[in-house]
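User: I need a structural model of MIR domain-containing protein from Cellulomonas algicola for a docking pre-check later this week. Nothing fancy, just the predicted C-alpha cells so I can convert them on my end. Input:
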Amino acid sequence: MPDPHPPVPSPSPLPPPVPTDDDTRAQHRVDFNPAVHGFAFPNAFVDELITLPNGTTITTAGRCGGMSYAALDYFVSGRPVPRWSADLYAPDRVPPDENWLAKYVHDRQLQSFLTGSATKFLTWTLHSDDETWVFKGVSRWTKEEEVPRVVASVDAGRPVVLGLVVARSLAKVGDNHQVVAYGYDVDRATGRVALQVYDPNSPGREVVFTSEPGQKDWSASNGRRWRGFFVQDYTPKPPRVLTRTAPSRDRQVSTGDVVKLSHVWTGRSLHSHGLAWTHAGTSGQQQVTAFDGSDDNDLWRLAAPHGNAAAVGDGHALRHGDVLRLRHVETGRNLHSHRGFPSPLTGQQEVTAFGRDGVGDGGDDWRVEVDGGGRWRAGSRVRLVHVATGVALHSHRRSDPQLTAGQQEVTGFTGRDGNDWWTVLEVR
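Assistant: Understood. Predicted C-alpha cells for MIR domain-containing protein:
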C-alpha cells in the first residue's frame, strides 16, 4: 500500500480511455486512490434521518454521503484529506460529534440529501427492478442512463458520487448508500461492466462493482449487492486544511522535533500566543488554548526535561513513560502547569506557557503516556501527564471571547477521560 500521507497534487488530465483492438472494451480511471484520498476511519456514524407520519424513524447507517462528498472536496482542491485513523477514536472508531471533521462530514451528508438527484433514493426504492409499461425500471435506468454518465465523467477526469439503491420500501430507505466512482471497465461485446469505487465502509482499499451479462443487479467486491445506482449532483466545497505536510502514521517522534499537536476529540490544535491569563485567581502567565485553525502559534519543540538537557539531547526516540518539555516556538516559553491557580472556565488546573529561552522549572515537565505503550509514533494517541501534579493535559468544547480569546480552554485535569488524548498533526 502506498504511503497514505503524501501531499496531494491537483488532479491532472489523464490519458484517454483505452479501447481494445476491436473497440468493444474500454477502461479508464481517474487518479483517485482510496488509500490516499479516502478517510482512514470506517463509516461507523449513525444518524436519524427522518420520522415518518406513522412514527417510524428512518436512520442512516453512517454518513457515507458526507464522507464521499468530503473526500471529493479534498481531491478536487488538491489538498490532503485528514488521515486520522479509527484507533484514535476507540472504541467508536469515528470522530465524535464534537470534532470539527465529524461536523463537516455531517454537513456534507445533509447537503447530499438536498440535491435534486437525491429524490431518486425515494423514487427508485419504490420502483421495480424490471421495466413496466411506463417506466424502464431500476436495472435499465442504471445500465442505459447512469453507466454512460459515469463513463463520460471519468473520461473527463472527474470522479462522481453514486447513490446506491438496495431498499424496496420507504422504511428501509436508510439502507441505501453513497460511494465515489473513479474508474470503469466496460466490455460492450458481452455487456459486462465493472466500476472502481471508494466505499466509506471499506477504508483504504478499492472496491469493485460488477454487473455480469444477464445480471440485473450489481455485486460489490466487499460483499454487498445493489439493485442499481445513479450519479448524484455534486458541487465542490473548499475544505478545511490544517496541514499540507501530514506525517506518516509510523513516523517516530523524537526530542528536537517541532510538532503541532491535535486534540483528538475536537480536532483543535494546542496553541499559545502573547496574551496573559486575566481570570479570577490567575497566575498572569501566558495563555495556552486549543485553536480552531492553523498557524505558527501551534508549533512546539520537544525538548529534554528540566535540568536534563545535557543528558538527553535531540534525536532521542520518545517512548511511553518518557519525560519531556514542550517549548512554544514563537515565544520560547515552556508548556507549564501548577497547583493553586484555576483554569478560566471550568476551574480545573490552569495550564500556561512559562519561562523564556530555556529558563523554567520542574512545572514544565510532562510524561508521555502512549495508548498501548511502546514508541511514540505520529499516528499514536497520547496523554501528556504533568509530572509535578499528576494532572493530564486536557481540553473540551468551552471557550469565552474575553477569557480564552474565543479559543477552546486547555486545562490540567485530575481525572482521566477521552478529552485527554492528543495526536501529532504535523512534524517539522
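Before docking, keep this in mind: Residues 89 and 95 are 6 Å apart (CA to CA).
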